[in-house]
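Task: complex structure prediction.
Instruction: return structure tokens for all chains below.
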Amino acid sequence: MEGTLNLVGYGLGAAGASIGVGLIFAAYINGVARQPEARGMLQPIAFLGFALAEALALFGLVLAFVL
Amino acid sequence: MALTALGSVLSAEEGGEAVDPSKAGFVPPNSLEFAYPDIFGGDGWLTKPVLQIVLAVVVVFLFFFLSSRKRAMVPGKFQFAGEGVYGFIRNGVGRDVIGHGFEKFVPYLVTLFAFIYVNNVMGIFPGLNFPTMSRIGFPIVLALLTWGIYNYVGIRKFGVYGYFKNMMFPPGVPKPVYILLAPIEFVSTFLVRPVTLALRLFANMFAGHLLLLVFMLGGAYMLANESLLLNVLSPFAFVTAIALTFFEALIQLLQAYIFTLLTALYIAGAMAEEH
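Output:
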């Protein structure tokens, strides 16, 4: 089996990030379900949170290639 | 670079330039795909990403200049589009996030958003097919610009001592916690923020380009292969490449918006009155 330890590192890092993204959108869905009028207000916050959590997973992916 | 890899894949039977003929198989794309040679040969600086950056500057300038020339009270379609983009950032990001005194920053935010978006879209634009923000140098410059701006704005408003005091010692916290909080806040605001800002944009564009390359080159390899099974299965790779192109279009818009929004948030945070 070939490859580097980078990939194992990235896989472990992606676990936390995916849980984080799931939590963010779960909160968004909950908020919109309780109060559908809040959809427009919550949407930018949901996307901002998604991008911030996703960033860490992508750092792992990029460093797996670069290092 | 993708054409070189594609060429070596398609000519694997004769032994492509980078493929060892004795074990010719799929050579997955790696970070070398992002290294472009000087357009006059050799390893100068005038590469394709540099030309794309210049093209993006021209496109952004022409878009806003041409859409604002007529200044009609009832806007035509092009003026409406330009006003739409400008208004979206001015209201949604500038006014709602920065609040009082936001007008000074609107030119920077609108230009930042349009510039990053045009550069990102070059990743799926036919013919260009390379997101220039996937070269780390370009996001670094933009993040340094943002870092310089939000620090300068904060220091100009509060003075050097006041700015760092507001940053590292926010009020309403019990005294002993400051020993832990102050270094963390300093490192986070002063050192980590520009790094994550640049790295987020770079990593998204890098990963997206690599994904598209894997599926497109893989599909080409499967199609050119001798095995009939791979030939029949290759459309799945191409369909996935198409689906990922649409996904990339969304991510490119999102990343441009996130960079601009975070810039505005950092500026607002630097100017915030703590009391």
